[in-house]
From TrEMBL:
Residues the entry annotates as binding NAD(+): T198, N229
Entry similarity comment: Belongs to the Glu/Leu/Phe/Val dehydrogenases family.
Protein name per the record: Glutamate dehydrogenase
Domain of life: Bacteria
Record site: Important for catalysis: D154
Pfam families listed in its UniProt record: ELFV_dehydrog, ELFV_dehydrog_N
Species for this entry: Pontibacter virosus
Swiss-Prot/TrEMBL keywords: NAD, Nucleotide-binding, Oxidoreductase
Transmembrane segments: none
Catalytic center residues: K114 (proton donor)
SUPFAM superfamilies, per the entry: Aminoacid dehydrogenase-like, N-terminal domain, NAD(P)-binding Rossmann-fold domains
């Protein structure tokens, strides 16, 4: 049988199989033919590198790294590089495929990729991080390229690492090549609006979904899990649209205020407190688990994978879930969410504002020109709204939840492009 249900792995779902389960449902609804299915189900290329790095104590450590290119059917592959102690190949494969679907959903001319290095960025000095980033770039110099494969930041990496990556790649090629990577610092060819782009896209998706559900933002409440780049920006911009944010959380726990959290103040507190909400006073401290199941209209998971699972999905009270994080809902929780009638704006749509503005950064680098913040925001908002409408229309047409609809839109586009380009 073509569309086989994957076997569950231990108690945590295998991210690649979780992605494939949704892919399979959408493929079956679309009647995807076997040839295209076989092309899309496996990554085009998986590179494993082992890079020696001299540590500050003079000893050499060898780090294992990955770059998975899932697809280049729509264009050069695009995707972040994750530095984390527990990153593994199946996770990178899933994230690479998600990038393919994400770029297709928002209709930008990129394929999907992802990178990872097993390391603990929080215990490494700046010098060690720089040597590791440069060594990883050297090992992948033939894989990366502005017309080939364009990395970006992900967990554990940021503008600093992207600057080193761009510099190392440029040195090896003998000229400055800004467009090889996105998410760079502003002075080095970064785009205005990139930092807040994902959170802004989450807000735009939330507003579009609330509109469909007949919810008035000014009379609605929300909680945001994760108060990093995505969560804090989403909270701030949603609050500006009138949504009362009753709770926010980070690794230190969750913070709740019946009258609404003052988001500007919470961000200022976090910025002065090493990026953490720990010790935040103007709220009651609750657990992260309580936050997820609290009585609010909108739940925005914007932290890590697998937080809405069969263990807590029964207790979720929100009417709308907007997935800022990648993969926050486990595959097994999907059915219960659907039975409860909760609308989910899935990750590959809701957090695609980030890759959209990364695409703008690449376009600006290639033009040798800088757009204004207004231009970036206006174009990104239009793309997010159009993408939302495309996915919503597919959900109506096929009578499926938004998540499956997003996969249908994405797979259909990639499959059609593949047909035009032709196989071997
Ligand atoms: P970040 O590192 O800036 O912030 C992560 C936040 O989550 C921090 O506040 C951290 O304390 C919190 N957190 C971590 N574990 C938690 C837990 N178990 N419970 C509650 N909070 C926890 O990361 P980010 O860039 O905001 O990314 C968040 C998510 O969004 C990730 O899944 C990422 O892949 C996804 N994403 C990010 C972007 C982007 O442009 N930054 C784009 C698309 C998707």
């Amino acid at each position: 049988m073509l569309y086989k249900e994957p076997a569950p792995i231990k108690d945590r779902e295998n991210p690649f199989e979780s992605m494939m389960s949704r892919f399979n449902i959408a493929a079956e609804i679309l009647g995807l033919d076997e040839e295209v299915y076989n092309v899309l189900k496996t990554p085009t290329r998986q590179v494993i590198v082992n890079v020696p790095v001299t540590m500050d104590d003079g000893k050499v450590r060898v780090f294992e790294g990955y770059r998975v290119i899932h697809s280049t059917i729509l264009g050069p592959s695009k995707g972040g590089v994750r530095f984390a102690p527990d990153v593994f190949l199946d996770e990178v494969k899933a994230l690479a495929a998600w990038m393919t679907w994400k770029c297709a959903v928002v209709d930008i001319p990129y394929g999907g990729a992802k990178g990872g290095v097993i390391c603990d960025p929080f215990s490494m000095s700046a010098g060690e991080m720089e040597r590791l980033t440069r060594a990883y770039t050297q090992a992948l110099v033939d894989t990366f390229g502005p017309d080939q494969d364009i990395p970006a930041p992900d967990m554990g990496t940021g503008p600093r690492e992207m600057a080193w990556l761009m510099d190392e790649y440029s040195r090896m090629k003998g000229s400055t090549i800004h467009a090889v990577v996105t998410g760079k610092p502003l002075v080095l060819g970064g785009s205005l609006g990139r930092v807040e782009a994902t959170g802004r896209g989450v807000m735009v998706s939330a507003m579009a979904a609330m509109d469909k559900l007949g919810m008035d933002p000014a009379k609605s409440t929300a909680v945001i899990q994760g108060f990093g780049n995505v969560g804090a920006w989403a909270a701030k911009l949603m609050a500006e649209r009138g949504v009362k944010i009753l709770g926010v959380s980070d690794v230190s726990g969750a913070y709740w205020n019946d009258k609404g959290i003052d988001i500007e103040e919470a961000i200022e507190y976090k910025n002065n407190n090493k990026g953490r909400l720990e010790g935040y006073q103007n709220a009651e401290k609750i657990s992260n688990d309580e936050l997820l199941v609290s009585k609010v209209d909108v739940l925005v998971p914007a932290a890590v994978e697998d937080v809405i699972t069969i263990k807590n999905v029964d207790q979720i009270q929100a009417r709308l879930i907007v997935e800022g994080a990648n993969g926050p809902t486990s595959y097994k929780a999907d059915n219960i969410i659907n039975e409860k009638g909760i609308m989910v704006v899935p990750d590959i749509l809701a957090n695609s504002g980030g890759v959209t503005v990364s695409y703008f950064e690449w376009v600006q680098n290639r033009m040798g020109f800088k757009w204004t913040l207004d231009r970036v925001n206006e174009r990104a908002e239009r793309i997010m709204n159009e993408s939302f409408e495309r996915v919503y229309a597919a959900s109506q047409k096929y009578n499926v939840p938004m998540r499956i609809a997003a996969y249908i839109v994405a797979i259909d586009k990639v499959a059609m492009t593949y047909k035009y380009r032709g196989g071997f």
